[in-house]
Amino acid sequence: MEKDAKEKLIEAGERLFAEKGLAGVSIRELSKAAGANSALISYYFGGKEGLYAAILEKQFAPIGELLDAVKGIQTSPTEKIMGYAHNVVLIHKKMPFLTKFLMGELLNPSKFFDPIIRKYIERIYHFMTETLNEGIACGEFREELDVNTATLALAGMMNFYFITRPITRHFALSNSDQDAQYAINAIEIFLSGVKNHDG
């Protein structure tokens, strides 16, 4: 089935905004890349900024869906963290521009950072700290564990890999599924550090 103009604008916008940022892309460039009339950007999205906001929401929405799914599962804190890490890999496969949008907004925030990006970052933070506290309460994780530090450590372990992947893929890991293998190894290292080995 042929894509409609709205889908084409989103697809073109994902690529262009990821590469150049919000300010670096013109309406003319967007319409040309999408093969659509520039007036349709206003019609569907209310303008270039509206298109950018729609694309940001599309990029980050799977994170919210992941957190809803993992949080609703009746399982151990360890399994929740493992499920989260595994699905982060799937999200990055589904959304190849996600890292570029995240880095672009962190380094040069637009007016959409707070209403879109921050809300998802805060949701991840709350999920992780709640899960770690749950693990401490049930004796699964170390009692003296600083949940804030541990949350930041896991976020760094997961995100740094995807940020540096364009470089590290040339020399780190050589199997056919590097992303999944990295997630398994990273989460094992993380859990080894937070586990209550005496419990």
Describe the structure concisely for a colleague.
The protein has 199 residues and is mainly α. The protein has helices spanning 5-20, 27-34, 39-45, 48-71, 77-94, 98-107, 113-137, 147-168, 178-194.
Q: From the helix content, strand content and strand pairing, which structural class follows?
A: mainly alpha
Please, how many helices? 9
Written as H for each helix and E for each strand, in order along the chain, the element string is HHHHHHHHH
What is the architecture of the largest domain at the second tier of CATH?
A: Orthogonal Bundle
CATH topology of the largest domain: Tetracycline Repressor, domain 2
User: What does the radius of gyration come to?
Assistant: 19 Å
Please tell me the overall pLDDT.
Answer: 90
Strand segment count: 0
In the residues, how many domains can be counted?
2
The termini sit apart by 56 Å
Give me the CATH superfamily of the largest domain: Tetracycline Repressor, domain 2
Q: Work out the helicity level.
A: over 70%
Query: Class of the largest domain in CATH?
Result: Mainly Alpha
Tell me what portion of residues adopts beta-strand conformation. Answer: under 5%
Instruction: Give the biggest sheet.
Output: none
| pLDDT < 50 stretches | none
Describe this structure in words.
The protein is elongated. The chain is built from nine helices and no strands. It folds into two domains: 1-46, Orthogonal Bundle (Arc Repressor Mutant, subunit A), CATH 1.10.10; 56-194, Tetracycline Repressor, domain 2 (Orthogonal Bundle). Helix 3 (39-45) runs parallel beside helix 4 (48-71) and helix 5 (77-94) runs antiparallel to helix 9. The mean pLDDT is 90. Helix content is 74%, strand content 0%. It is mainly alpha-helical and 199 residues long. The chain starts with a helix and ends in a 5-residue tail after the last helix. The protein has helices at 5-20, 27-34, 39-45, 48-71, 77-94, 98-107, 113-137, 147-168, 178-194. The longest helix has 25 residues, at 113-137.
